Amino acid sequence: MNFFNRSNSVGVFDSGIGGLTVVKRINSFLPNEGIVYFGDTARVPYGSKSNSTVIEYALQDANFLISKNVKMIVAACNTASSVALELLRENYKVPVIGMIEPGAKMALENTENGKIGVIGTNSTIRNRAYSQEIKKHDSKITVFEKACPLFVPLAEEGWIDHKATYEVAEEYLAELRIAGIDTLILGCTHYPILSNVIQKVMGNSVKLIDSGTAASLIVEEYLEGRNLRSKSAVPGNNEYYVSDLPVKFTEVAQRFLGKKITNVTKIDVEEIIKKSV
Amino acid sequence: MNFFNRSNSVGVFDSGIGGLTVVKRINSFLPNEGIVYFGDTARVPYGSKSNSTVIEYALQDANFLISKNVKMIVAACNTASSVALELLRENYKVPVIGMIEPGAKMALENTENGKIGVIGTNSTIRNRAYSQEIKKHDSKITVFEKACPLFVPLAEEGWIDHKATYEVAEEYLAELRIAGIDTLILGCTHYPILSNVIQKVMGNSVKLIDSGTAASLIVEEYLEGRNLRSKSAVPGNNEYYVSDLPVKFTEVAQRFLGKKITNVTKIDVEEIIKKSV
Lengths: 277, 277
Fold this sequence. Notes:
The structure is a homodimer. Chain A is α/β, with parallel strands linked by helices. The first copy, chain A, has two domains: about 10-100 and about 215-275, Rossmann fold, CATH 3.40.50.1860; about 100-210, Rossmann fold, CATH 3.40.50.1860. Chain A is built from twelve helices and ten strands. In chain A, the strands form two sheets. A six-stranded parallel sheet of chain A has the order 4-3-1-2-9-10, with helices on both faces. In chain A, strands 6-5-7-8 form a four-stranded parallel sheet, sandwiched between helices. In chain A, strand 1 (about 10-15), helix 1 (about 20-30) and strand 2 (about 35-40) form a beta-alpha-beta unit. The interface of A and B includes residues 44, 53, 149 and 162 of A.
């Protein structure tokens, strides 16, 4: 008998809208699971903020999901995963998974030449989150890391096939091409939106690892292992919460999820702060 | 006799580092004035957030400056100026100036053909802050507005002469060129960093209005008018406060100010929230 109810939803949080690419994957792999999503749109982005600030925010975000009785927490934000995962696991009884372990694991399964590239926000790259995780499993792998801070605003602008996006990608990815990597971790949940551009610039021989896909497989593994898989025969319900007004979120969400959403609720971030004190 | 001491500093706040382009102008026009700068780097950017969130943050930022005994407040953030100025003026006894009125005034003084362009963040453009201010003074002026959300991350990346920046500028500015404007308000404090690219794309016949320059002239006017000009014979001292760790701020500040800074202090944003409640 498990402490948590298998009919409860999976909680997913992110600094803003990027985590929706993870929701899309979970919906597709585990269609009968319900999802409670929290996007901290009032304080986005986390990627440029200090570790201590990100840790504080991540705990507040997770607190909100716990208040919604989720059976599991997915930190669908690479920045939060890279600095706050251990603390989240210490603080909550529900399983907590981040983006780093699943993405690193999938990259290790895919590389043939032992050269893995990682792209992400300034914070994820500065913390060397992926390379540390990869080295833990296989110290012979060479990891090449590159921060690509302009990819997030380009994805949010929807410039998924714009000349400027190619120019930016050419600049950022040049050194990874020279390094001869055969596997590239998209270490930021926004980046799958730009995967066509990234694939074209890197060439078809490079395998792109979508951390949302990788995380969805681990979500399934965790739920199965803990007997927490929903037994529902109907598709799960998604609920969305944001800390700023939902207008922009709802608009961009359509591009990120590939479908329209209506049930977005604004919550008060100061309330979350109070609850977490 | 004035309530405020003329030897006190001028307070300047911004959502992050953009306001430093305004500090640079004030230092250059009014070298013997001291400045207390607060950059809300933990919650940057404001431009993508809702009006109610920005108003709340702006009041907290101003509260912090007041706690430092400033003799005047400059909201060196176009987004905050466009939504929170009236409320700031109601709340504080010190003079408060924003970016919108000075920029609009200077554009009106410069235009010959009556066609003024405005570029800014999503929020500034959505609020139509500049066009409303311009129309108040001269209803015959035609104002063309365009949000340029990628300019801020490009400025922060330091891509001030990069091919990608030209591609982005060509895309954003195309309709303003077609409209035949002769004056363009840089309605975001980050944009002066990209003024070379913007000028090249718009052509030399278009006059660029730097809202920081415009605001500095108004700061001088206000201080003179209220007998608050510093009588000090030595250069004023700048103090910098930020809400997130100062590393990135200090690095980018050098590019924005054109000089090195060392005296940056991190303050606790939750403390500001408490003080403002």
